[in-house]
Amino acid sequence: MLGRILFFLLLFVSACGAPAIREPDQVAPWLRADPQRCLLTRDLSEDMDDMARRCAEAFVQQNGYTDLPATEDSTRWVLEMGELGTWPRLLATRGGSLERDAATVQCSMRQCVVLFRLRRTPLVCAYRTVTMSQIFTRLRLEPGGIRDVRCDERRA
Fold this sequence. Notes:
- There is one protein chain.
- This protein is an alpha+beta fold.
- The chain has helices at 2-15, 29-32, 48-62, 87-94, 151-155, and strands at 104-107, 111-117, 126-133, 140-141, 146-147.
- It has one domain: Nuclear Transport Factor 2, Chain: A (Roll).
- Strands 1, 2, 3, 4 and 5 form a five-stranded antiparallel β-sheet that branches.
- Strand 3 and strand 4 (140-141) form a beta hairpin.
- The longest helix has 15 residues, at 48-62.
- It starts with a helix and ends with a helix.
């Protein structure tokens, strides 16, 4: 009996998907007005790379690039360079294009660079780059992508 209860509990939890990204409830309006600013609370025990990873993962999810829906808060949506059209069309085009979790992170004194693997089948070894300042502002998904030419060799 206990086994069945645990099984159904596990099934229910896994069906609910990943937890939503939690931003602080009380954020100053001038902070929220900038959609390219990370609003996540910094855990001072984590290093810069970990915070950059969390900010970039929140950014791609909020802007509709993962398999999760984009945030309903349209003030957090950011246009890519050259994007035109209505938000519903743009979000539908972006949907599911990137993995939820960042592949790698590197921060320097000036900026952080976070790579996300593309989910589309012919582009398994390709990545998109999210950049941000060292204080987790000016988040943007860079145009173009990066292809790992040795990825196919490692997969064989």
